[in-house]
Write a structure and sequence with these properties.
Helix content: 40-55%
Order of helices and strands: EHEHEHEHEHEHHE
Number of domains: 1
Pfam family, one: adh_short
Family: Belongs to the short-chain dehydrogenases/reductases (SDR) family.
Oligomer: single chain
CATH architecture: 3-Layer(aba) Sandwich
Strand content: 5-15%
EC number: 1.1.1.-
Number of strands: 7
GO molecular function, one term: oxidoreductase activity
Keywords: Oxidoreductase
CATH superfamily: NAD(P)-binding Rossmann-like Domain
Strand order of the largest sheet: 3-2-1-4-5-6-7
CATH class: Alpha Beta
CATH topology: Rossmann fold
C-alpha cells in the first residue's frame, strides 16, 4: 500500500521547487493532488511529470494567494467536489528583496507579509473545517531558520516566518483535541529560486535538491503521524 493512498492533498507553490517535488512525491505515494500556483505553465509541467509517473492527472488551480477571497472560493470548490481535505501543504512563500529595515520599500514589505503570513491565516480559516472532516487531517506549513536567527537585511522575510511559526503553533494548541495534526517544516538550505534570489552567485548543484526534502512532508502527511505543533527539520 502506498503511504498516502486515497488521500486528497492541496499544495501551494506547486509549480516549481519544493512544492513541485512534494506534489510529485505525494502523487507517487497514492494521493490525489490539487496544485495551486500563479504560474500556469509551471503547474502544467508538474502535472505532466505526475502523469508520466502515475498515469493520473492532478487538479490544477491557478491562484495568486494575495487574492484572499479566491482562497475562500477554493475551499468551497474542494468541499463541493471532495467533501473534505486530508492534507494541506502551505509551501508558497516570497523573499522579494533584501535590504535595511529603515529603507525597505513598504509595497514589498506588504507583499512579503501578504504571502508569507496573511495568506496562511486565510488558508487556515478556509480549510479548518475541511481538514477536520478528514479522519486524519494533516496541515504542513513551510518555515525557515530565518524565523529564529536575525540576519542583516533579512528583516521582512525573517519577521514573516517568525509570525507564521507563532500563528501555526497557536493554531496547533487550539485544535489539539481534534484528529487534525499541524506542523511546520524547515527545509534547510535547498536549491530553489528563492535561494538563488538571495545568493545569486551560489553553486546550487552543491546544495540539497527539492526532491531531497520531500520525505519529511510525506512523513507528516501520513495518517499514522502523531507529531503536532512542531518545527521539523527536513534535513536533520
Amino acid at each position: 500500500m502506498s503511504r498516502l493512498s486515497g488521500r486528497t492533498a492541496l499544495i501551494t507553490g506547486a509549480s516549481r521547487g519544493i512544492g513541485a517535488a512534494v506534489a510529485k512525491r505525494f502523487a507517487a505515494e497514492g494521493a490525489h493532488v490539487i496544485l495551486a500556483a500563479r504560474t500556469v505553465g509551471g503547474l502544467e509541467e508538474t502535472d505532466d511529470a505526475i502523469f508520466q509517473t502515475t498515469g493520473r492527472n492532478a487538479t490544477l488551480v491557478p491562484l495568486d494567494l494575495r487574492q484572499f477571497d479566491k482562497i475562500d472560493q477554493l475551499g468551497y470548490s474542494i468541499f463541493e467536489r471532495f467533501g473534505k481535505l486530508d492534507i494541506l501543504v502551505s509551501n508558497a512563500g516570497v523573499l522579494e528583496a533584501l535590504g535595511p529595515v529603515a529603507h525597505y520599500d513598504p509595497k514589498l514589505w506588504q507583499r512579503v507579509m501578504d504571502v508569507n503570513v496573511t495568506a496562511n491565516f486565510r488558508l487556515i480559516r478556509s480549510f479548518d473545517r475541511l481538514l477536520r472532516a478528514s479522519d486524519a487531517g494533516r496541515a504542513i506549513f513551510v518555515t525557515s531558520g530565518a524565523a529564529n536567527a536575525p540576519y542583516p537585511y533579512w528583516s521582512p522575510y525573517g519577521a514573516s516566518k517568525a509570525a507564521l511559526e507563532m500563528m501555526v503553533k497557536t493554531y496547533a494548541m487550539e485544535i489539539a483535541s481534534s484528529n487534525l495534526r499541524v506542523n511546520l517544516v524547515d527545509p534547510g538550505i535547498v536549491a530553489t529560486k528563492l535561494r538563488m534570489q538571495a545568493f545569486p552567485g551560489e553553486d546550487q548543484t552543491k546544495l540539497a535538491q527539492p526532491d531531497d526534502v520531500a520525505e519529511a512532508f510525506v512523513a507528516l502527511a501520513e495518517a499514522s503521524c502523531t507529531r503536532h505543533g512542531e518545527v521539523v527539520s527536513a534535513q536533520g
